Amino acid sequence: MPPTSPFGRTVCAMVTPFTADGDLDLDGAQHLADRLVGEGGCDGLVLSGTTGESPTTGDAEKSALIRAVAEAVGDRARITAGVGSADTRHTVELARAAEKAGAHGVLVVTPYYSRPPQEDIAEHFRTVADAVGLPVMLYDIPGRTGTRIEPATMLRLAEHPRIAGVKDCSYDLLGSSKVIAETGLAYYSGSEELNLPLRAVGATGYVSTVANVAGPVLAAALDAFDRGATAEATAHHQRVLPLTELMMAAGLPGTVTAKALLGALGLPGGPVRAPLRPADAERTAALLDAYNALSR
């Protein structure tokens, strides 16, 4: 079985539901969170991450979302709050607010746009970790931030007592394998097509956008692998690939595709906030077909 982690194992990067008018939908968030944890195969939720539209939600909205979801799921799942920003001071403020609101951990993305050098990145993460009593998950997604957390930097950061995990969207299996092998960090695939490959080299689990709609299949792949049924794990992994491709690699952000599919299924999600725009009817129909194919 995977190592114990303060963030969970099968973790959903949950959308932030909005009302038709674009306001925060806390009732919808509670309903969706309860479903993801109850029947959705998730033992952890990441709130206000990339999929949760963190760039277009306010600080007060982020705290309100944590409180509402914590009330809905209780002790059934770990809640990790996205608190990353391009500003270290603001990130510290968000991390402290998340701790006060009831989060179990914080997800901190690499500072973006300014593209700081590696030691500055490391100091950013240490400053946040020093400011709270929660475990910190580093978020390495250079395709969005413009800057990688280099493996050597992660090895140094792993020495901090509260830096406990990594969400990996680096697409560097060699670098990821090295960090997994040389540290006790709880490593998470942030790219669904790498969930099983990374688990095979020691990752703890995944943080997944696709889990908003297909969590049980993703969890089944890890469950099968962990009991030694590798052929079954591969079958589950391959079965969800068409939906993964449509949601994550077909030209639209995962937030847009996840909300389109949730809406088609009659589940909370609501609209996306600008500058994102909703998926059109053709893409939504294709997503629904791929989803329905999972049960055939």
UniProtKB/TrEMBL annotation:
Per the UniProt entry, what are the Gene Ontology biological process annotations, in alphabetical order? diaminopimelate biosynthetic process; lysine biosynthetic process via diaminopimelate
Native organism taxonomy: Bacteria, Bacillati, Actinomycetota, Actinomycetes, Kitasatosporales
| EC top class, as a word | lyase
Q: Where in or outside the cell is it found? A: Cytoplasm
Q: Write out the GO cellular component annotations.
A: cytosol
Q: What is its main location?
A: cytoplasm
Keyword Lyase among record annotations: yes
Q: What this chain does, per the record?
A: Catalyzes the condensation of (S)-aspartate-beta-semialdehyde [(S)-ASA] and pyruvate to 4-hydroxy-tetrahydrodipicolinate (HTPA).
Keyword match Ribosomal protein = no
Its encoding gene is what? dapA
User: Which NCBIfam families does its entry note?
Assistant: dapA
What are the entry keywords?
Amino-acid biosynthesis, Cytoplasm, Diaminopimelate biosynthesis, Lyase, Lysine biosynthesis, Schiff base
Swiss-Prot/TrEMBL catalytic activity: L-aspartate 4-semialdehyde + pyruvate = (2S,4S)-4-hydroxy-2,3,4,5-tetrahydrodipicolinate + H2O + H(+)
Pathway assignment reads: Amino-acid biosynthesis; L-lysine biosynthesis via DAP pathway; (S)-tetrahydrodipicolinate from L-aspartate: step 3/4
Q: Which domain of life is it from?
A: Bacteria
What is this enzyme's EC?
4.3.3.7
The UniProt family comment states:
Belongs to the DapA family.
Query: Which residues bind pyruvate per the record?
Result: T51, V207
GO molecular function terms here? 4-hydroxy-tetrahydrodipicolinate synthase activity
Q: Name the residues annotated as catalytic in the UniProt entry.
A: Y139 (proton donor/acceptor), K167 (schiff-base intermediate with substrate)
**SUPFAM superfamilies, per the entry:** Aldolase (SSF51569)
Under the subunit heading, UniProt states: Homotetramer; dimer of dimers.
- List site positions: Part of a proton relay during catalysis: T50, Y113
**Official protein name in the record:** 4-hydroxy-tetrahydrodipicolinate synthase
